[in-house]
Amino acid sequence: MRRGPRLGRAGRVARARCGALALAALGLVLWVGAWRWVATTELPPLSPDTSVEVLAADGRLLRAFTVGDGRWRLATAPDQVDPGYLAMLIAYEDRRFYRHAGVDPWALARALGQAVANGRVVSGGSTLTMQVARLIEDGSTGSWRGKARQIRLALALERVLSKDEILALYLQRAPMGGNLEGVRAGARAWFGTEPGRLTEAEAALLVALPQAPALRSPDLHPQEAREARDRVLARSAASGAIGADAARAAMREPLPAARRPFPAHAPHLADRLRAAEPDRRVHRTTLDADLQAALEALADDAAQELPRQATLALMVADLDSGRILASVGSADYTSDARRGFVDMTRALRSPGSTLKPLIYGLAFSDGMAHPETLLNDRPADYAGYAPQNFDHAFRGPVSARDALRASLNLPVVELTHALGPPRVIAALRQAGIDAEVPGDVPGLAIALGGLGVSLEGLVQLYAAIGRGGVAVALASGQDATPPTGARLLTPEAAWHVADVLAGAPRAASLPDWPLAVKTGTSSGYRDALALGFDGAHVAGVWVGRADGTPVPGMVGASTAAPLLFEIFARLGPRPEPLPPAPPRTLMVGSNVELPAPLQRFGTRQAVADDAPQLAFPPDGAALAPLAGRIPARVERGRPPFAWFADGAPLAVQSFEREMRLALEGPGFVTLSVVDAEGRAARARIELR
């Protein structure tokens, strides 16, 4: 009778063990099923399209573009965001974010209890990972089916992403009102700042907005926005994320009354960079953000004084490196009347008189002339081409210095005739400057602006003069490596040109700064220009109509030059001084101190049969000097002769036709010989 109960207890134990095993098996099956359920989750794209950004040299935002659906969504990493904001976000949204696996059971249990008690969903119990799951799928939040999908996707996200990567997705996708997504877009639009430094009040508003962005927009619903912000502050203070005093002070701060526009600086350059590399998200430029903004404001102010359809363009570059520091393509990018969408720093326009310094520099380099050489300002006809001075007057003999300072036309055409127009075009192209010549055959008119060159090209040309005759390629991208520049002018010739330009007369209203400045006005008053440099910067100004229509009375000296000086005023309290003369510079006080062949320019006779010719060395020869000297011979021409190397005198008043000239290698040099009539012959040779 007693054995039955003992067997009964054994049976119960056995049944309990079987039940436990069954539960364990069921748990294992459920676990495997859940694992497979999560593992087989189809993930949406985890790299959302972000706005293209154009940054200044210091990393500040110059311009951003909306993504394809018209939203502002700026790439954001947690280390770009104020730690105080992150602390508030975690404290308010997901205190156990760094401890759970995507789903917080305690938060879900609380949400379930509230739903049962109230008969509706009161709080979602969503973790930040679940919110990311909803945001990247644009899923619903008010149904159990939607919640189940968020749970599944959140668990799957935690398997493939780190916590910082999940947080980065939230920081990029959190809705901030209207077409704003992400904390950077929100901080930019509501506070005009990057999120790296936020006040407690700013951070709290950005934490509160994503919960109901349409109902908490501070410009449309300020009361709701304030209440939501203050709740974040109160909970953050209760959790210790911020101090109680800081929370109370933040609650007294006003809300933003309106959205701020995103930066839109350097729009032409930004458009060009984006078009060149459409898949690139971040373009880092060489621009100085403060200088760019200052010159855009200068252009806007200056445009108010211009005719309604006229515009202007400005550019500044670092003289040594060629880095573009500011580029303003038009006065008003959005103006149809001014055709503001046209980038006038790149448009090919007539340079007016602004190529004259190059032509004088080439003549100085070749030993054809010196600043004190007398030129002829007199009527001349070149096979039907009869240029005139701007004032239609003639001054007779005039020094090259005064002719360039007065921007006389006839002397520079005579120099161009001697050099040959192809030589001038070759120098431009050697400097990397695009020049459009009518008919592709350069004539003497190029000396007076009869070709097309961009403002950027002219700035690049003047940079070469300011750098002692060595060209440099202008660059706007930080990753661009400017090529080694070619030598256009000898150091002595470049210094002479800069010295002449720095001493040119200027309006009494302009400051007496050590700037080398040249102005220009194209035929028909279509283009007004001013170019200049000091010891550190080079700048250019263009004014006119983008469609090429004349603007009567618009000249470079009165329209563009004042703007050039305004640019340099924004570069510092006073321009950097120009460099001193190179050691071999021929310095004279008057014309009579020059070697006889340089005293008066005789180009008009250079076409005669007895003009000097270099019999040796021929152009393009490569020679190895013996005892530091090379042989040279001149034929024809009338002695005495003067010999020059890169514009520096080697021998003067020589009646010998054969010489042994002191030249040291290695390198390239332009060897010139000038006869008593001022006629010249030259050759470019290599010394080994």
Please tag this protein with its features:
alpha+beta; 688 residues; single chain; 5-stranded antiparallel β-sheet; 20 helices; 5-stranded mixed β-sheet
Structural description of this entry:
- Helices cover 36% and strands 15% of the residues.
- The protein has 20 helices and 20 strands.
- The protein has a five-stranded antiparallel β-sheet with strand order 7-6-12-11-10, with helices on both faces. A five-stranded mixed β-sheet has the order 14-20-19-16-17. Strands 2-1-5 form a three-stranded mixed β-sheet, with helices on one face.
- The longest helix has 37 residues, at 3-39.
- The relative contact order is 0.08.
Identify the overall geometry: elongated
What's the alpha carbon Rg, rounded to whole Å? Answer: 38 Å
- Tell me the number of helical segments per DSSP (H or I, 4 or more residues long): 20
Alpha carbon gap, first and last residue: 125 Å
> Helices and strands: which structural class?
alpha+beta
